[in-house]
Structure formats: C-alpha cells, structure tokens
Amino acid sequence: QLHSDQDKGDGSLKYILSGDGAGDLFIINENTGDIQATKRLDREEKPVYILRAQAINRRTGRPVEPESEFIIKIHDINDNEPMFTKDVYNASIPEMSDVGTFVVQVTATDADDPTYGNSAKVVYSILQGQPYFSVESETGIIKTALLNMDRENREQYQVVIQAKDMGGQMGGLSGTTTVNITLTDVNDNPPRFPQSTYQFRAPESMPPDSPVGRIKANDADVDENAEIEYSITEGDGYDMFGITTDKDTQEGIITVKKALDFENKNLYILKVEATNTHVDPRFLYLGPFKDSATVRIQVEDVDEPPVFSRPAYIMEVKEDVPINSVIGTVTAQDPDAAKNPVKYSVDRHTDMDRVFNINSGNGSIFTSKPLDRETLLWHNITVIAAEINNPKQSSRVPVFIKVLDVNDNAPEFAMFYETFVCENAKAEQLIQTLSAVDKDDSYSGHQFSFSLAPEAASSSNFTLQDNRDNTAGIFTRKTRYNRHEISTYFLPVVISDNDYPIQSSTETVTIRVCACDHRGKMLSCNAEALIHPTGLSTGALIAILLCIIILLITVVLFAALRRQRKKEPLIISKEDIRDNIVSYNDEGGGEEDTQAFDIGTLRNPEAIDDNKLRRDIVPETLFMPRRTATARDNTDVRDFINQRLKENDTDPTAPPYDSLATYAYEGNGSVAESLSSLESVTTDGDQDYDYLSDWGPRFKKLADMYGAMDSDKDS
C-alpha cells in the first residue's frame, strides 16, 4: 500500500502507478493506494518488476509529492519439472562390450531458481533398461551393466531415464526421456556350412569357366564381418575346378577350369573351405573363423564330336607332284565309349578351287589339281570330321599346306633390254650390262650363267662376258658400225641357272646402230623411239574428233531422210492397180470394228448381208443398204475396183476412212489362178508347182520352196 503524508482522507488526492506491468499485471487503488496483482506471477518469466508511484491533486492534476520507485521481487517455488534436451536419444555400442562402457549422456534442465532451495537440483535414475544398462545419478551418463551382450541374440534396447528435482526427495517434480540403444556387429561368429557334403553333376561337354553349382556357408554376423572367401584346399579335382565368391550373396560358385572327359574320369571329390576375410583378433579365442565341406562332382557322359590328334596340321608338298598324290593324313576319333566311325571331308569354303581332296575313310589328303609355288605358296584348308551315325557331331581342324619349290622356271632378263651402239664405237667397248631373275626359290642363292646362243657365238658382231655375279656385259667386237647397212642387231643370249634340273632360256637384246658425237652421246638413229615418245599432236586429235562428229551428223540426216520417204503414199498414180495399203494416219475402230469390211464378200460378192450394220458407230440417219449388182467372174479388175470405190463414196452406210478395206479379188487373167493362202486351204488335192520355174528369176525362190515341198512328199 502506498500512502502520502499529504493525504487527509478527503479524496482530494489520486494515486497513479507506472512501470513494468502497471495497469496490466499490477493495478493500484487511486483512492487508497493499495497495489494488487491481477494474475499469477511466474518467476521463470520475469523475476523482478520495477514500478513507479505518485500522488497527484485530483482537481489540478499536479503532483503533490515527488515520484517514488519501488521493486517487486518474485520468490521462486518448485513449479517446474526437469526437462531433457531431447525427447528421444539414439546411441549404439559394439556388442560384447565390457561392463561400464560409455553409451551416451543425457541432460535435463530445471527452470526453477538453482540458488533458492533444491528446486533446481536434478538427480538421474533408470526406470527401464536394467540389468543391461545403468546411469550415473549426477551426470546422466549411461553405461553398460551386463557382460557379453550379443547382437545376434538381441540387437535393440529401449532405456527410460528419469530426471527428478529437489535432489530426488519426495515431492520433487520429474521428467523422463527414452534412449534407443543399438548393438553394432563385431566379427564374433565364424562361418559354418549347413551341411558337410554337397553333390553336383556336370556334363563333360561343359566349356571352361562354366558354373557347376553354388555352396554357401552361413555367418550370423553382418556386413563386412560376414564376408567369406571360398577356396579349394585339396581333392583330386584341384586343378580341374575353381571357386569364386559372389559378393552379393556370399555364395561360393564352383566353375570348370579345364575340359572334362567322362571316359577319362567321371568323379571328382573336392574339399572347399570358407574363411572370414575380416577377423577380429579380440575374438580369436572363440575358435577358428573358417569351416570346410566336401563337394562331390559327378561327370555325365554326352555324345561328343570327334577329336583330332592335333590342334592343327602342317604339311609340305613339292609343286611338281602328280595329281592324286597323297601329301599327308589327319586323324580323328570318337572320344565316346561307343567309338563311332568317323568320315572326313574338306570345307570347300576354304578350298574354292578344289585343289585338294581327302579320303573320307582314312583322312589322307591328296592333290586334285596341279600346284604352282610361284602362284600360291601356302594353302590353308579346313578338314571336317563327323560321326557317320550322327553327322551333327562334327569338329574342324586347320591344315596348313606349304608348296615346296622345284626348279621349274627358267631364268629370264630382269627387264627388256634395248640399247644402242655408236657408229664410231671402238672394239671391246661395253655397251650394256645384263641381269636376270628367276621365279624359283633358291636356298643357297641364285647363280646364273650367261652366254651367246650357238648360232650367234661365232658370227656375232658383239661379245658377251659373264661377270660371275649374276650379271653380264655386252661388248663390241669390231671398231666401226654402219647404220645404213645394218640398223638393228638382235643378239640372242642364253641364261642358265645352277639348280637341278638346270633350266635355261634364250632372251634377245635389241641393239640399234646410231650416230654419236665424239663423247659417245647419241645424236640420231632409227631408234628414236628410245628417247622420243610417239604420239599425236593436239591439232591432229582435234581434226580427228571433228571428222567423227561430221560423220555422225551425216548418218543422222541420212536416216531422217529415209524415214521421211517411207511416209510418202504408196499409190502415186491412179493407173497403178496393184494391191496397196493406203495409210490415212487416222485411228481405226479397234477390235470392236469387226464389220468394217468382210473379206468373204470380195471372194463371193453375192454373199453380202443386207442387214449388217456397223456396231462401233451410230449413224445419224439410218439408210437401208443398197443392193449392188454382183460382178461377174469375167469382170475386169480395174472396173471392179472403180465400181466398188464409186459405191462406197455414195453409200452413207459405207465404212469410214479410218477403216481398212481389203480387196482380195485378183481377176481372171492368172494362169496359176489365185495365189492367196486364204483360198489355198479350201483345196483338198495336191497342186503341181513346176510351172513356177517357168516364170523367170523373180519366182525362183517360190519355185525352190514349193518344188522342195513336192520332193519331200514324194520321198
């Protein structure tokens, strides 16, 4: 309560309050000066409030005394329980840890005043998690309390820790937290095979590196502590099989290292060992961290293809061997117990020219064509061996055939030699050096000998000197030569080798006589082709090209003129009464125009059909066809044609101009009567065509043709 000495109790003074919480948390009675709190105070929110109070004249509002300041201090009570810094703690320790191993430290705080009583003094205790763990009451450190806790038995633990104030005394407030403790793995368990013996089967045709089967040793540990390495320690299949580890499944994969053979061995026994790769020395006392098992592998028999005695064959044959000569033999046999017979053949994709063949029964290879080492030195063929009872079971082997050289080629010049000699040459002067080559192979090196042919040795104007180094020199025998007398000399040279049998050839050296200067340089001779290339000049080539173009244009114009002449009408004169075809260059009625003409009418004019109409056109006005007078057999052909033309010109039902009118009427003036093949088929009797030979040379061809037919019939 505030009270001013100036307050006489008559209500003239008024008390006002200001400062922390004035008017909200604290209020003052303006008449009596009593200060009251409007709500419950919390020391943890604000422990001290500073207020200012003053008395003023109610009527004037002026202070009657100076302002007074006072402090309100809140005394603490135990109204806050301890609070942990985390709602849930997570911790982990290795399994098999010693007692007292630090796990984690929990911390709880109390908002009460630590300087006032025991309201903020916190004590820790464990409510859940015994007997495995314990907690220090003062520090909140959690430790292990049980020896040899095994992760494989239990991995997760949940511990509840309590923090209580008032030093843990009765009436104190408390809070709890949960601690999740996980035991981490250590390598304290060795691998163990679930069974002592494993059985597998493997066909003998299984290729190397193929898997036979899988085995697995169990390890209760996890991650790297459960990693296992498998190995084959002993057994009769130590070198035939291998084992690797599948890193994902920790299984041992047994694989084939070498080809299996049922006939040779059909059962293998292996001892496989599984070992941990990461061993913890602290737990070696628990025993060896490895285990072993026995693996039995049974090899199964399969039908195998024949097997050659060698992976490849190399044979040699001389190039001069006769056809059907045996050069070698390949051998293959069925590895199965049945020992099926084998037949041999040559893969023709490797011997397209069919140079070699093979005996299908015994595998002997022989030549079927002549060989030539100079053409092809090596022949690489493939031989196929297949079972007779089951041809699908086959195998292949390469055969390399080397063709050995024989001396079957004569030496020859290394190039074509054409040289010259000067007219003023001196005797014993070198004019050309010769060399030779030989297609044959010489193991000791070629050795050629040169000499002049016998027919030129004595009468030649030149001499030949063998240098004994596979070269020879041509020398002049006389002092001067005259190119006007003899312009060219042909010198035959015999070249021989030293192999057996000796081969020799005669080559010719062309020597031209030329005029030379005093230094021996050629000036002119009839051998200008040696130094001046022949050819046509550019002007000559252009002239030849122009002549060819003009010739082509002439041919084209001539062909065009002939084509234009062919288009001229055949009937030039009205006096020409021979049978002709008049071309109007108009399109006809096509296949539908079957009534444009009737050839039978010309043969028999009286057989005309009065009621036949055109089917390809519709006439504008339908006229009845007029019946014309029939022509007698003695009617002249010209009168007959003119009469028919006049009738067609005036007849509206006559065929149009795009129709072809054929008149097969010949008249009565022919001694041979009608030559038409249309009427010839109507005669049944044989005819005599001897009269055709009396008609002259124009009918000679017909006389020969029909006369020959009569002679055939007679014969």
Can you give a write-up of this model?
- It contains six helices and 39 strands.
- By secondary structure, it is mostly beta strands.
- The strands form twelve sheets. Strands 32, 34, 37, 38 and 39 form a five-stranded mixed beta sheet that branches. Strands 7-14-13-10 form a four-stranded mixed beta sheet, with no helix packed on it.
- Strand 38 (504-516) and strand 39 form a beta hairpin.
- It is elongated and about 185 Å long.
- It is a single-pass type I membrane protein.
- Pfam families: CADH_Y-type_LIR, Cadherin.
Strand content: 25-35%
**Largest sheet descriptor:** 5 strands, mixed
Separation of termini? 175 Å
The assigned structural class equals: mainly beta
Q: What is the C-alpha radius of gyration, as a whole number of Å?
A: 66 Å
Instruction: Return the CATH architecture of the domain at 412-524.
Output: Sandwich
Low-confidence stretches: 527-534, 570-577, 606-618, 620-631, 678-685
Please tally the helical runs, counting DSSP H or I stretches of 4 or more residues. 6
Query: CATH topology of the domain at 412-524, what is it called?
Result: Immunoglobulin-like
Query: Overall 3D geometry?
Result: elongated
Mean pLDDT: 81
Number of strands: 39
Helix fraction? Answer: under 10%
Instruction: Name the CATH superfamily classification of the domain at 412-524.
Output: Cadherins
CATH class of the domain at 412-524: Mainly Beta
